[in-house]
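Thread amino acids onto this structure.
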């Protein structure tokens, strides 16, 4: 797993700010609620790709597996929340995913390439944050977050491979464009704590 995590650290433009780690530890109930939302949204994204691109067999197989895994993670987060007496409530979404999707092209094949790149970046950042958080959490939550690293790392790789396939060649330039946006979203102060937010203003 160290090798996969190193690959993700090499891929991402920055590490999670230490201030965000402090925010997460001070808002663990909120972190779990938003984590559950993130898993559900990840499954929804995979399913929407399956509905839109019905002739792409490789995408259909990878997204089907990914959706199942994300829904399983969703159930696992809910179970942890239930044991801790944390209610699953509606939250306003972080600016993170919307900020990345603003740069997605409107027409295919560019749209598909960009959506897959965004998916890869979100999965990579999730993996990086699980690893960054785990050493600071209680044993049960740390064990759970460490258990997610392998699948999140694979999801990142799957998305990136599908993007290259959809583009018919390397996607390095588009990846660099999106990573520049991602770095700002991760490092610039945020007004609300979320799993993919920047560090809180105060």
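Threaded sequence (202 positions):
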């Amino acid at each position: 797993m160290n090798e996969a995590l190193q690959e993700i650290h090499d891929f991402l433009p920055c590490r999670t700010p230490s201030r965000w780690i402090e925010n997460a530890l001070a808002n663990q109930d909120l972190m779990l609620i938003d984590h559950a939302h993130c898993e559900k949204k990840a499954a929804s994204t995979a399913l929407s790709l399956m509905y839109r691109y019905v002739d792409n067999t490789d995408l259909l197989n990878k997204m089907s597996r990914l959706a199942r895994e994300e829904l399983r993670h969703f159930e696992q987060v809910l179970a942890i929340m239930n044991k801790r007496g944390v209610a699953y409530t509606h939250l306003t979404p972080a600016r993170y995913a919307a900020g990345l999707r603003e740069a997605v092209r409107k027409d295919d094949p560019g749209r598909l390439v960009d959506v897959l790149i965004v998916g890869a970046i979100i999965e990579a950042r999730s993996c990086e944050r699980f690893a960054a958080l785990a050493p600071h959490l209680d044993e049960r939550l740390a064990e759970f977050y460490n258990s997610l690293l392998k699948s999140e790392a694979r999801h990142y790789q799957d998305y990136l491979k599908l993007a290259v396939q959809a583009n018919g060649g390397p996607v390095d330039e588009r990846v660099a464009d999106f990573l520049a946006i991602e770095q700002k979203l991760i490092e610039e102060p945020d007004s609300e704590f979320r799993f993919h937010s920047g560090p809180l203003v105060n």
